[in-house]
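fyi for ur records
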Amino acid sequence: MTVAPYRPEPATARRRGGVLRVVAPTDAAPLDPSCAPASAAPFVRLHTRQLVTWQTARDVRDWQAVTPVPDLALEVPSTWNAGLGASHRSYVFHMRPGVRWDTPDRRPVTAHDVVRGFKRMCNPVRPSPSLAYFASTVRGLADFATAWAAEATHQAGDAATLAAYQNAHEIPGVFALDDETLVIELARPALDFVHMLALPAASAVPVEHDAFVPGSPEAAAHLRSNGPYRVRRHRPGEWVELVRNPAWEPAADPYRRAEADRVELRLSDGAGRADAEPTDAPAEVPVVPAVGGLPAAEPVDGDGALGWALDPYLLLNLRDPVWADPRVRQAVALAVDKAAVADLYRRHRPGVPVRVAGSLIPPGNAGHDTADPYPTGDPARARELLASAGHADGTPLVLIHPHSGLGPEVAHACASDLTRAGLPTRAVGLADAAYTEALRAPATAGGWQLAVAARVPDWLEHNGRVFAQAMLQATPVPGGANHGGYAAPEVDALIERALDAPEPWRADAAWRAAAERAVADVAVVPILHRAPVAAPRRPDRVDGIAPLPPQGYAVDLTAARPEVAG
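which gave:
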């Protein structure tokens, strides 16, 4: 299905102001950007800034909609403006004047604050989910992160100890020449490096954040802002209230606005619902949660769109000995009736295109392939493989899933398929925060063998690494989405080949090969590829809706205009 180009609502006579309410998954709150996932970027955008950012799209098919634009930086470095060296490994950024922190003295944001942000993403208590991207790209950052993690095993994890280590050590490839000039040196040229700089992990961080443990409720309650809004009140897991930041200057921020007086993030209870509100509640914008969450009004260009998602897929916790025999893993891949899951999505999400998936990387992403080594829904063949492996029925496998979106429906369908094929499986639902923690730290979160998951691309150009590297690479650096603990030297070598490739087509070939090998190994079981969906064009009582394509086509909340009487 193809829709017309997205065009924002024309200007209206309604005045600026009002309260904008956003219903969001629990883990999407605008917490400390140093450990916020890429999926939180639309919310982090409210109160933080990065060297580069994204602009809203007048036409989501316009290439400019997926190209980073300067934010804290005056320009995106290139060979044309002398900001990018001939080796494509040295980037020089000049800081934009007029950007200030929400501190009593309204201190300017400097290059040193960006350096602090890079260090803080490496913290050993709550490292950034995007850390693996930067560790494999920025010179010396991987060593900095691993050394800090090793040191932390002998020290307390309090804020003072963390800050002392952070401030006594340097990342060789990230340094400030002065307050206005930042240099970032890469270990290898990277086609996608500038896109990575728009992630929450690359936010500037003020010195005041050193007083709090990254990701803690205290850090979230004491965030300092350099964006259009600041956090006024925060109740972890329930709601966040943001108000306009008096230190923010519109003239120093070309790509954000502050239309609403106040933004309230009402966090989901894990079942896609927020607290009940009276009929006169403030204007509300829904947000699409992961794993088949609430669809927006229409898909974005269907087959021709960039940024299809792997939604859903089955993740295998390969640390569990039940998966030691590859035939048992292959039985899982053969048991799942992917076509039935597709029908489930079509019933509950009509109009949003989905395809049965055989490959790890979906359409519209670098490295996509149509190969499928395991035809869908063959329980007889699955039983044969289990018999040849000598696998007998035992304690049911635990399949965890999030309560939000279609997570429960997908999990129960897969559990039934696996049980019929000879792998008794019990679906266990978890609140969003508990589910995220179970994936992040499977060794300490209880016993689970399978998980229903989804993966949405973190950016849209040259983005093979957001699937293949994040989901498959075995690395000592925390972060990423390799929640199952997959490790294969051949796949790691292909990932390194892709990262080293100077031409996009060479990188794509290596990403494709890495993904094919991992699917053949049954590191994961792809189930569906889902087309991207844009946020509602005109939610009730909200104007100014415009999408940010590289952020999952989410709404630019800074430009959303609630209706205001009078």
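The longest helix spans residues 504-521. thats all i got for now
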